[in-house]
Prior knowledge:
single chain, mainly alpha
Amino acid sequence: FMNGALVIIVLNAAWIGFDLDWNNSRSPIPDIVFTVGEHSFCGLFLIELVVRICAHKKPGEFFTDAKSWRWNWFDALLVGMMVLETWVLQFFDGADLSSFSALRLLRLMRISRIF
Length: 115
């Protein structure tokens, strides 16, 4: 399971680079490709987080686990921000999402778990 999660993290890092390079007004790639990509990664990370929480005997232990509570809180925060950016804020027309686009780079820190 953890290897699959790491693959998704690395693919997301590559996706962020692709998105930064090609998601602009001059791009020949349709906007729907970027939208589907963002929604897919958001869903995958949410599923991963829910599975990891459910793997504990008591869900609250996920946030107090002696060995990995820092990473667990970090992951929950990132997934929460991603859900907020991808699924919640899209319903607010004219919302300034520029501050959230900088937070996307925090997702790259998840790669540090590999090393």
